[in-house]
Amino acid sequence: MKYFPLIWATLWRKKTRTLFTLLSIVIAFLLFGMLETVDYAFSHPSTGTSGADKLISTNKYSITLPLPFADLQEIRSVPGVTDATWLTWLGAYYQESKNFVFALPIDTESYFNVHKDEFIVSDEQMKNYRSTRSGALVNVALMKKFGWKVGEKLPVHSTIWTQKSGSLDWTFDIVGTFDVRDSTQANAQAYTVFFHYDLFDEGRSFGKGTVGWVEERIDNPANAGAIAGKIDALFANSPNETKTQPANDFAMTFVKQIGDIGFVLRAILGAVFFTLLFLTGNTMMQSVRERIPELAVLKTLGFTDGKVLALVIAESLLLCLFAAVIGLGLSYATLPIIGQALQGVQLDPVALIPGLGAAVLLALIVGFPPALRAMRLNIVDALSGMH
Amino acid sequence: MLKQLIAVISMSLQTVPQRLGASSVIVIGIAGVVAVLVSVLAMGAGFQHTLADSGRDDRVIILRGGSDAELNSNLTRTDIDTIGNAPGLAKDADGKALLSSELVTVVNVPKSDTGTDANVTMRGVGLKLAEVRPELKIVSGKMFRPAVRELIAGVGAAKLFRGLTVGSVLRLRNSDWTVTGIFSSNGDVHESELLADVDTVGSSIERTGYSSAVGLLTSAAAFTAFKDSLTSDPQLKVDVVREREYYAKQSAGLTKTINIVGTTVAVIMAIGAMFGALNTMYSAVAARGLEIATLRAIGFGAFPVLFGVMIESLLLSLLGGVIGASLAWLFFNGHTVSTLGAAFAQVVFQLTVTQALIITGIIWACIIGLLGGFFPALRAARLPVAEALRAG
User: Fold this and answer.
1) What is the number of structural domains in chain B?
2) pTM
3) CB–CB of B282 and A16 under 8 A?
4) What count of CB pairs under 8 Å joins A to B?
5) Rounded CA separation A257/B132 (Å)
6) Cβ distance A136 to A194 under 8 Å?
7) Is residue B130 part of a domain?
């Protein structure tokens, strides 16, 4: 630590050069932070439900094909399944197709039993919801987004389900709002509107008695694989075979379908760091080359070879870490903007931590060759300018 | 003046080899920026290309009104009959309308690289397929036969999804389907799909009715009359869209996202590369202080000196830009990838490094080079001659 002033001083020996090198590294780590958090978000998708105790059963051959409602009783009888609930994709929007609304027909009892303690609804509004056939519970954030009020009618347009009248429009009465207890799942539920499955099933002109998918809560997440296997075995060789998987894996299948996002991001970071190696390496080399007489003086004063090596490495570490902390800090500041640009993807700053490791690695790679050169310096040659 | 300029430029270029390490910082830094920019934008260009090529102005898609996408839509047999009688549709030799009634569903097929299930469009097509879509060509195997469970797979799908070779059997809902052929279709979105007989698909998924109808018009101009006759029919509630518009709309969102992401990342990288260029050129000016001062002392003007430094920076950046664009072209042009399209199914497309993208990349390189060279050049031009000579 007592050498810190020395290292700091040598680092700023050429102010412009160090400043530009520093800024380049800052930029690289700004990108590192931005891309890594995005990669992390895509590899840890938010499912809108907390806990590893949720399974999702869909039609094995196509998620657009329905399952028979009768499957539900059989699924509930599987040991380990605490409760099961059924849902269908309404494919709805509000007024314009860009205003997607995740209007979800639910069976009140079983849905809030499978998703126990995940939503906050006041007792009074819950009571109103249960007693209002056309009632809807709307996410508080969505209410705010469109300026809706409790007591208003909410007309949505389904792109799939016609009513008996032939109309694709469905109208609900907003009787209450809900909030999501686990804030990390809030974004995944930001467009949700709950309404009664009975209203939906009786109102639609086709597909009665079918469900889009089934969600189960299980007693022990450790048995998820075995329970999923038992559910699927029930329907093997039936016209509607199922595919049951943990909610997380189900979300992952969609993320994976977007493409190999991780590969694209890593390729970009690879290019950034490859160019950075050259730039920083060149700066460190130049800086040591110019200081050879000074380094020789240090050695004359009794600095050992090892100490000189350590000094140069420390200088490189200081430069890279200092810049990396600034860069990662800046990227932390941009996270809300990126999250918004990605339609509300939740970004976790934990993904920034590996950045510090990358900075150390960079410092060692670019610091080592000049450090080695400084260590091997012969005092007499160096002082006489014969290096 | 010109003579001085040429002399200064040739002198600075001759000394570049002595400053190889520092000069390569500019070249490599800018090559990195341009390679990333061009590769990412090539993804957007390829995706857009695939969907833009999926349409003809004289072909129309008819969907149930308010459905937005084929997957959501539902038309009855009566609807199809009404549509077939509308004016403007091209007719075959027997006077039958060139209309294909289609049924679109999404099936799970594992991707060949990861083995994870992906949504692939399975499209049931009518008997008029060949006339309605003349661009469709069987490249290996043969056409599926109606009334049996046979399908043909697009070249893109066959490349990226598992088990899509001629003769292989694909297990779908409650049934086994034989792949009888692989087809190409002008590089359009249908190359990502599986095609089979519409009624056989319908019976397999227990669905009566159709998703959409695709018709060939007598000419692009016949569209308005055709559309009006259908939309004014009180018995029918349909949306009529030109095929080109239908698919172009699907590409708009993702292409925009890719372009924004690519440009943002490249702008940030470019700022980093500019700092690198500044560093290189400042040290170049410093190393050649004596030389520049001598030139000024023997009567060279400030402008040729300034210009000389800028040209050096520009040429190094240009080299970096060319290397970066070439790398992008070499590694990624024609690279086949797929993503989840707006229609909820995989769209297979090729990264396309277009000429325009290469030019864009090189222009970026030159801008970075000019910005990175300007301030050091200014310093060179303002160098106090006497001091520099004394220091040397």
Assistant:
1) 2
2) 0.88
3) yes
4) 146
5) 31
6) yes
7) yes
